[in-house]
Amino acid sequence: MFTKLKNIDTAFRHVRGFTLAVICSSAAVSIYIAWRSFATVSSLQEKVYVLANGKAIEAFASDRKDNIPVEAKDHVRMFHHYFFTLDPDDKVIKENITKALYLADGSAKNIYNDLRENGYYGSIISGNISQQISVDSVAIDISDYPFSFHCYAKQKIIRPASIVKRLLVTSGELRNVSRSDNNPHGFLIERWKTVNNQDISTEERRP
Description:
The chain is an alpha+beta fold and 207 residues long. It has helices at residues 2-45, 64-84, 90-101, 106-117, 120-126, and strands at residues 47-52, 55-60, 130-141, 147-158, 162-176, 187-204. The protein is elongated.
């Protein structure tokens, strides 16, 4: 009888030990899974995906200070593209100028008003003239705020009888503002002015 009790006690200890081992193993596995899930979620939250041409492209977040030169140059390029890309269509001119003026302060608005009052945009429409711009380079000085810049570009003015190419150099400063759909880079161009704008060449068009 005592032998049976001893065997039952031994069996009970084995079962208890096995049960404790299973519980500890399950707890360890659960803790590991929870930790890995948390790490995975944290990693995914640091990733940004941009949809381009129907494909999701992974982008990596970084501090704004690391991207200031790149974003500032693109901001200046966008402004000059909208301000100087014109076609003989009043709607196109208004749309492009409106987009450009969201990126700059009153200095750009004043230049636009002067050109409009002098009949510049009217002559583009009446003369069936198109104007294009190609930005060669943008120099940004981020050592001092607001950031000063110089933009070096070439204009192409397409008239019915000729194509005129002009050198364009402008300067200004960049101030930080809030990002928006109209101003995705969060900069505002100030004290914008033309430094040089002279003809490079004139090419006659075939009739």
